[in-house]
Fold this protein.
Amino acid sequence: MLGGFTVLDLRGTWREMGRQYGSLASESLRVMYKRAVEERILGSSGIGRDAADAVARGFYDNYPHRLKEVFAGMSQTSGLDFGSHLLLNAVEVLVANDIWARGGGPEFPAHCSGIAVWGEYSSGSLVYGRNYDYFGWFKALGEYLTVTVYHPCDGSLAAATIGYPGCVYLTTGINERGIFIALNNGEPSGGALQYHNRVPAIAELLMFLLDSPDLDQLESFFQTTRSSFAYVIGTADDQTSRCFEWPVFDVKRRLSVRRPGLMVATNHFTEPSWGLPRPDDLKFSRTRTRRQNLLNLAEHFKGSIDVPRMKKIMDTRIEDLGATSDRTVYQIIAEPGSMTVSLKIPDLTEWTDIPMRAFFEG
């Protein structure tokens, strides 16, 4: 534990890492299952068990074999059976699918905001801040937020994911080469179309980190891979940031950068070559407002933004001309140059610095 956050340092084959995961995190996995699956998904949300099992199994079925081995190992040591692990892995998917099935709307706004600064905007090294926004009740699960460090023995790069225990995919992560990835919903521009016969994009992103020693290699994976849903993906190393707008039918790297040294990502595409209109701001959880607020803050603090300054930027709420809201369930700041990641659960914890280099090199 570091500042209240769990760090799992896993090594070996993928099944061995799954066994370690299940053993080390057995208590948090069981509590997460009870609170997120039994009480919320199958309880107050009213999703039937058979329907939930079908979604969870479908989500898992298209996973790469390496990641499937993690579930096999976890179910041997955690005290939860295999089916329960599939449900736990699909908690965020089940919630989203339920809202879509009921027509979406304001109940399921687009979410997440990110900002990377370097060059003239930074006081030194590149710093990337991101808000992970979802349904408010997920904030109560923040005490179980877990950094999972995978050290595969198959020649893959070591990679760390940040998320809820039992979720074997990547919404935020960093690898041993300092390649950082953060995922935002892209529905306002890319639409809500999903493909259930593709590898889930959030599983693909973990595979990308395992195989990408630099941003050029990472970009080749984006250019090669079709997404299962629409996303806006922010990436960075210690020198620069790149943003990929990744709907199900194409991918574009943002090339029309008007502010060298600054990348801001919310939930709509801003690369003009798409030829898309700007989305309705209120319908999509103020994606344009959040973006503009972060751009304004970056301009205001241009040249002085370091990790402490980025923490203040990420702590600034929408009503105070920032991007954080009641739906911000956790926050992350990465400094790839120092291999440091900082975590915070709004209203629950203060910022906690996690020295990732110690886990990658240990």
Remarks:
- The first strand starts at residue 6 and ends at 12.
